[in-house]
Specification:
The chain is an alpha+beta fold. The chain has 5 helices and 17 strands. It folds into 2 domains: about 110 residues, Rossmann fold; about 130 residues, Probable inorganic polyphosphate/atp-NAD kinase, domain 2 (Tumour Suppressor Smad4, Sandwich), CATH 2.60.200.30. It has a 6-stranded antiparallel beta sheet with strand order 6-5-16-13-8-9, with no helix packed on it. It has a 6-stranded antiparallel beta sheet with strand order 12-11-10-7-14-15, with no helix packed on it. A 5-stranded mixed beta sheet has the order 1-2-3-17-4, with helices on both faces.
Length: about 260
């Protein structure tokens, strides 16, 4: 489809803003609320911001790299964009939904494209209890935190804390500890996409913990429930010669 209604959005960096001006001049400026395709100019952080901002519109997002980290981005090229979008391959995924309950009983919900992470707020390690589908799997994890990530998010924070890379068609989530102290050798677990993960904070008054779903943070949580949200679809567009599945596979062979 070469007659796409394209809207361009960009990060607040000189490179991204210069690209925005050039592409608007070449293809026309359109409000994202009227587009059937959104082109995001920046890095992975801005790509996530764009996905969150326009998630409710159910339109695909094509990222072009004008930022720092560009794992979710395609190469930048101003020419032949309509033809390029017509050839692009779409990848759809469902985000994680976090339901976080604070120590004073307040409940906050947020969605995550990459991961839901729990992090200690002070110098003291966190103490967490982990349940999967209502069954206790670990009665006490002493750590800096823990995260649950999607296959698309397995290349982000999860990878930096030595979590596993997940092929897109693996149909699993990764549950990964962050700097585990006890049990020291526990490396995490792979869970079905349908799993509900519940993490309780132990000694939360002494060892406060925050919960973060991509960009949304809740402080001093007592309990966090994490489950895939099948009611919301995230749609990416990638060049066929360098799609996300190939990138994740290649990342496993990167020194």
């Amino acid at each position: 489809m070469t007659d796409r209604r394209i809207a361009f959005v960009a990060a607040d960096t000189p490179a991204a803003q210069d690209a925005l001006a050039a592409l608007n001049a070449r293809y026309g400026a359109l409000d994202p609320s009227e587009a059937d395709t959104i082109v995001a100019l920046g890095g992975d952080g801005f790509m996530l911001e764009t996905l969150h901002s326009w998630m409710a519109r159910d339109v695909p997002v094509f990222g072009m790299h004008r930022g720092t980290v560009g794992f979710l981005m395609n190469r930048y090229d101003e020419s032949g964009l309509r033809e390029r979008l017509a050839r692009a391959q779409e990848f759809a995924m469902y985000p994680l939904r976090m339901r976080a309950t604070t120590v004073d009983g307040k409940v906050t919900e947020a969605v995550a494209v990459n991961e839901v992470s729990m992090l200690r707020q002070t110098r003291q390690a966190a103490k967490l209890r982990i349940m999967v589908d209502g069954r206790e799997r670990m009665n006490e994890l002493i750590c800096d935190g823990a995260l649950v990530c999607t296959p698309a998010g397995s290349t982000a924070y999860n990878l930096s804390v030595n979590g596993p890379l997940l092929p897109l068609d693996a149909n699993v989530l990764a549950l990964t500890p962050i700097s585990a102290f006890r049990p020291r050798r526990w490396r995490g677990a792979l869970l079905p996409l349908s799993a509900t993960v519940t993490i309780d904070v132990l000694e939360g008054d002494k060892r406060p913990v925050s919960a973060v779903a991509d960009r949304d943070e809740v402080r001093e949580v007592a309990r966090v429930d994490i489950k895939q949200d099948r009611n919301v679809a995230i749609r990416f567009l990638f060049d066929p010669e360098h799609n996300l599945e190939e990138r994740i596979l290649a990342e496993q062979f990167t020194p």
